[in-house]
Specification:
461 residues, FAD/NAD(P)-binding domain, alpha/beta, homodimer, 7-stranded mixed sheet
Chain lengths: 461, 461
């Protein structure tokens, strides 16, 4: 048992709230400081519920504190993607094997649930309406604005975790230290959230158990189901150019565009114009940085050290996996926090970089490739390979979504498999071609080579 | 002739001073603001002269204002690298063909010369001791500290150029605008400057017309000649680890290390310990950002938008080439500064990224590969290919250093050539092997393929 610490967590979002439970379980006293008011009280007056994709890595972290099933009860399984073409025709593509789903969960609902579970713990205290203004890392002295009193408060943290998201102020303080590696990179796309409300009888107006995509090459819309029968749609759209946020200025522009691009759902979006012109355009940023820690004083976690774009549905899952990894390390902890922080950031950085890159790549797949029959045929062939060689071949999407293999391993292996698929697909014109002897022979040969390469890579790890 | 503008340049370093001449030549009025005092006055009281590598791209920009030959007079040609091994044995590797040199120039001397040439121009005014504290880009309103009076001044710039270096305050203001792409990335190496003074008779104690390298795998020292007979040495050394800045703490540590690593020059460095322990450790940063401009108000140039590590000797040259490119664009300028800035940053960004990446890669070559006989053999073979096929093959180093081919083209072509060299070198064990029929045949075939690939790439540009 290591010394009990007074731990400060900046940010009571998903990662901060879950982390508090893990740290309290290890015997520490935890104080969380959150800029916003208590969302459980403000939820009531009707913030629109935004949803996120929760998958195996996320569930694993929830399992660790025994709330996996509880969350699964209020999550909606999505069995695959349903693609909507310009004529409103649908194509279904399963995410994984039979029984492998990802889940749509309400961000606010999950966050509130984590707060409800942690707040009764006598070792966990939430402080809302506290905005971090300044952090002196040398003394771990934080200056906060108390938005209830309007006063400035200060505190000295014994140990500080920065779980304060993509625009982290804790990271901001680290950025001012010497030789800090930092990058922020924006896509030339923004996003806007829109709603397909529930039908009058409360039912879902599109297939409930799927993630819907309207892939349009240069842009796309997606929709995820909510528990209340509605869907939250997200339009990913260029900032500038012929078809872009910049060029949709009037209700007429908007309607003409939606009728052309998303004709099958316009009728399902009664508040389209009102929502479109009042909701903000969100930015899509990737943040990478290193190190993630400052001496034995502070550690970043989640989006604060690896904000990713949302196209792999892994943002929250990666943040939760940080907690799983940290907790494993705490299992054999010798009391040296600086050593722990260094080991954690070194272990986790390659995986954070990998999921950041995978997420950007998946945007191209989602908005463009999923509309291509060749791409869908390829996905079917990959699934057949996976069935035939379950130990030797897991499709990239499945490695990321349904396993706990390191993201960096998934990225590398995905590249090898991509090379093989390019060779194999030259011989494939229909699903049946998979059984052709030359395909089987080629695949066998390629798999042997791949195993050899993987063995070689294994040595490098 | 476009409208005469009042132009403000932040930073009167090499790029700012040269830029002022080009802009004045185009009919504009230029004011330069520089944080430091006038270096021509402070030079007198003995700052050590640091030298830089000046090569074709830099000379081209100097030629544009007619001072190429003037600068060449006070620059020292370096014909190649002289490698010093642990036993003090020397190996020479020429930089290019007969007559192709790079030049060692004094940074302060060149900067002072540019000031001397520009200051008499009635359209150019220097303001020293003015530190930019804050910049409101919307109004182009700058707040400066006047270090002579201690007062704060403010000015509104009609048009602003940020030539204020790697830690640019103008860029800092741009970083606060929406969706700004930015990265700073440090090597885990620092550098320290040391001196080999002139001999008593004023002569150089090492071969004057060369860049000296002590490549030691994980670290290295280099030395460039100065006009006064001295050499400025730079030790590139890890911050941490068994052999590192961290672990050299005493005069004894230092001497033991230098005697083992650089035995042939210890006797030439009488002030080694004094210099080592009083000179600061410099950091090695790569800065990338985008965009480089803000509306029609401000444009970054030089290190301010593309700081690179020094290992390709191209930092100043790339900044000077910015000016050449900008001046070409001003030739056909229609008066729309915003359009000009956008065209400039789009044209120049891929080349800035390329030289940044090349510079990092060249560190590995310099500290490690140049000590490898296979590497030197390969350089000789490449030079033979270049002689035989002067139109089809220019070694990467020569493209970067002795041509005005875009850096991005050089990087890409260098990669293709690298693949070919790997194949060719399998058949080469001595320079004579180059004439072997199978080598000649292989090379011919590879060159045809390369031309085809280059044609294809050409289409993409």
């Amino acid at each position: 048992m290591t010394e009990r610490k007074n731990i400060t967590i900046m940010g009571a979002g998903l990662v901060g709230s879950l982390l508090s439970l893990y740290l309290a379980k290890r015997g520490h006293k935890v104080d969380l400081y959150e800029r916003r008011p208590d969302m459980r009280k403000t939820l009531l007056d009707g913030g629109r519920s935004i949803n996120l994709a929760l998958s195996d890595r996320g569930f694993r972290a929830l399992r660790g504190i025994g709330i996996e099933e509880e969350v699964r009860q209020v999550a909606i399984p999505m069995h695959g993607r349903i693609m909507h073409d310009e004529e409103g025709r649908l194509t279904f593509q399963p995410y994984g094997k039979e029984g492998q789903f990802i889940y749509s969960v309400s961000r606010a609902g999950l966050n509130a649930a984590l707060m409800d579970i942690s707040e009764p713990n006598p070792d966990i205290t939430y402080h809302f309406n506290r905005q971090l203004l300044d952090l002196d890392l040398h003394q771990n002295k934080a200056t906060l604005r108390n938005h209830e009193t309007g006063e400035t408060e200060s505190l000295e943290a014994e140990l500080l975790f920065g779980a304060d998201g993509a625009f982290s102020m804790v990271r901001n303080a680290m950025q001012k230290t010497e030789r800090y590696n930092y990058s922020q990179s924006y896509l030339e796309y923004g996003y806007k959230e829109l709603t397909i409300p529930a039908a009058e009888d409360g039912s879902w107006q599109l297939e409930k158990n799927a993630l819907h995509i309207w892939p349009r090459g240069n842009y796309m819309m997606i929709a995820l189901p909510n528990l209340d029968g509605s869907f939250t749609c997200t339009l990913f759209f260029p900032y500038e150019g012929p078809l872009s946020f910049e060029n949709i200025k009037t209700d007429d522009d908007l309607l003409a565009f939606f009728l052309q691009a998303f004709p099958d759902v316009v009728a399902l979006m009664p508040d389209l114009a009102q929502e479109y012109f009042s909701n903000p355009v969100g930015t899509l940023v990737t943040v990478k940085c290193f190190p993630w820690s400052y001496k034995d004083k502070a550690l970043l976690i989640g989006d604060a050290c690896h904000a990713v774009v949302p196209f792999y549905g892994q943002g929250m899952n990666a943040g939760f996996e940080d907690i799983t990894v940290l907790d494993q390390m705490l299992e054999n902890f010798d009391g040296d926090w600086e050593k722990l922080f260094h080991a954690f950031e070194r272990r986790r950085k390659p995986d954070a970089d990998a999921i950041a890159d995978l997420a950007v790549l998946n945007f191209i797949e989602m908005r463009d490739k999923v509309a291509d029959p060749r791409f869908l045929l390829r996905k079917k062939i990959e699934s057949k390979i996976n069935q035939q060689y379950p130990d030797k071949w897991i499709p990239l999407y499945s490695m990321v979504t349904f396993t706990d293999l390191p993201y960096s391993y998934a990225l590398e292996t995905g590249r090898l498999q991509d090379e093989i698929m390019q060779k194999v697909m030259k011989h494939i014109h229909s699903v049946e071609d998979y059984e052709k002897p030359e395909v089987q022979k080629l695949l066998e040969k390629q798999l042997i080579q791949k195993e050899r390469l993987k063995g070689y890579q294994g040595q490098r790890v």
